Amino acid sequence: MTTSGDGRRPEEKLRGPVVLRRDRRNESTTTDQRLLDSRGPSDWVHTDPWRVLRIQAEFVEGFGALAELPRAVTVFGSARTPCEHPEYAQGRELGAALAEAGFAVITGGGPGTMEAVNRGCSDAGGMSVGLGIELPFEQGLNDWVDLGINFRYFFARKTMFVKYSQAFVCLPGGFGTLDELFEALTLVQTKKVTKFPVVLLGRDYWGGLYDWIASSVLESGKIGEKDLSLLHLTDDVDDAVKVVHEAYRAWEETH
Asked: Which residues are 151's β-sheet partners?
């Protein structure tokens, strides 16, 4: 038993598994009382312990909704792409090609390129999934999402993107797309996920980034040759689907 310097054990109070000692134990109410008493301030719904339950609920809902999803590919791209832009047309083409190859598509569920991919997949009769996120501005799920989930927390949403897809395809996009791209590369590089191709679709847009990684990051020894090969740069939708399909076939052979 641990005691204080004068040999006395400090007074304590138990709050479930939590031990409160000294001034921290001076609480006028119990957890049960605060739960059952509907009066008073509602600040408790914003406390960290309550957030843990919200986080847990997001994982439970996501796992439950996506557990029986067929093989799938996550596609990222800009929410700002207008519907008349060539990148929107390419997104529709990609969504349709993946559906015809037997893959569901998973996007962030928003407008722009994400909408285009969901639309192409849905029009081709595929499973079109959108994983939305709560943002300061209203966005909502686009009309071509067949199965949609809205998340509060980016990290819970990111887990779903990786867990339920066999590849990432990145069309031109902003910070969100870059964030997901480099997180995917890190997971593959560290072998947290295996047989997981990352395709950059659009040489004009992604070529500069790819060249910088090769000329600066690789040349300075920050990554190895194998790490650079984790990225596949192409302009061709059929080539992107081929890379995805071959990686999935290789995964099947080992499982």
From this structure: 133
DSSP state of 128: E
pLDDT tens string 204-250: 999 999 999 999 999 999 999 999 999 999 999 999 999 999 887 87
CA proximity to 239, closest of 207, 206, 201 = 201
CB 137 within 8 A of CB 130: no
- Residue 94: other Cβ atoms inside 10 A: 27
Q: How many Cα neighbours within 13 Å face the side chain of 27?
A: 15
Residue 141 DSSP code: -
Max intra-chain CA distance, the chain: 78
Residues of the chain whose pLDDT is less than 70?
A: 1-7, 13-19, 21, 30-32, 34-35, 37-41, 44, 138, 251-252, 255
Count CB atoms within 10 A of the CB of residue 242: 16
Using a cut of 0.90, tell me whether the model's pTM lies above it.
Answer: no
The amino acid occupying position 57 is A
Is residue 127 within 8 Å of residue 147, measured between CB atoms?
yes
User: Which tokens belong to 185?
Assistant: 């590369």
